[in-house]
Amino acid sequence: MEEHLKRALEKQARELAGPTPMEQHIILLRLTDLLENSPLFGAVPVLEAESPQRKWLADIGALLSRLDLEKKTIFKIAMQFARQNWTNSIDSIKGAALDAATELKLNLELSGRAEIGTAYAPGEVYKFFSDLKSIVNGAESNIFLVDPYFNGNAFDHYLSNLGNQINIRIFANNYSSEILGYVSKHQVQYNSIIELKSSRELHDRLIFIDNQDCWIMGGSIKDAGKKPTYLIPIVGELAKEKKAIYESIWSNSHLLK
């Protein structure tokens, strides 16, 4: 119960504080991608659950809800009147999404974080730690981490405080036995849901959050601060392709226990 309360309070605090610069980057990229690849809406309402139009609206709504109450409200009102006034509702939603993207760009520029992605020089241990922690802590349901050199110490730093509310999958290689020791103890204490697999086919360093957000890292998490690295969000087809590749490798690898 204490772990549930802790996670709920942390989530509430994050929502009140608004998205971090790293989260703003991914929201901006996803909004831009959706606006550039909007399906045709036409003059007749298309709201079937499996339609590209409904999927697009759901994605836009989820992103706007991460920003502020005003844009969330605009989206909800537009959807309420979508069947009666389809064209105006779609125009209102597209306008809210465009305004949100413009505001995010300005906010990132004013905070000195306008570049998509962040580079880290040797020695910038805390900066990398803080940014990656903000990405990991933003997870609401699951994390899929791919890093052939991920180790036990990295698990302790970045994943050990997530408790049993987040499903975690770790895909590693060189230090799998070491990680397993940390994971086993964590599962005993917190009844956490963590799966660990190992494969020699891993090349990228990636972290997927809630099956949507994807970040690529320039080096192993364990070496951050010792060597130059970067964190770059990727969206659209590239993110889907990366996830599909590693889901396929994962499905053909054995679970470590």
Task: Describe the protein's architecture and organization.
With 257 residues, the chain is α/β, with parallel strands linked by helices. The protein folds into 2 domains: 14-110, no CATH class; 118-251, Endonuclease, Chain A (2-Layer Sandwich), CATH 3.30.870.10. Helix content is 52%, strand content 13%. The chain contains 9 helices and 7 strands. It has helices at residues 2-17, 21-36, 52-65, 69-80, 86-110, 125-137, 152-158, 176-190, 236-251, and strands spanning 118-120, 142-146, 167-172, 194-198, 206-209, 213-217, 229-234. A 7-stranded mixed beta sheet has the order 1-7-6-5-2-3-4, sandwiched between helices. A hairpin with a 3-residue loop joins strand 5 and strand 6 (213-217). The longest helix is centred in the middle third of the chain and has 25 residues, at 86-110. It is globular, with a radius of gyration of 20 Å.
* H/I helix tally: 9
Percentage of β-strand residues: 5-15%
Instruction: Report the biggest beta sheet as strand number plus sense, adding barrel if it closes.
Output: 7 strands, mixed
Mean pLDDT: 88
CATH topology of the largest domain: Endonuclease, Chain A
Q: What is the overall silhouette?
A: globular
Which short descriptors sum up this protein?
257 residues; alpha/beta; Endonuclease, Chain A; 2 domains; seven-stranded mixed sheet; globular
Q: How is this fold's topology laid out?
A:
Layout: H1 2-17, H2 21-36, H3 52-65, H4 69-80, H5 86-110, E1 118-120, H6 125-137, E2 142-146, H7 152-158, E3 167-172, H8 176-190, E4 194-198, E5 206-209, E6 213-217, E7 229-234, H9 236-251
Parallel strand pairs: 2-3, 3-4
Antiparallel strand pairs: 1-7, 2-5, 5-6, 6-7
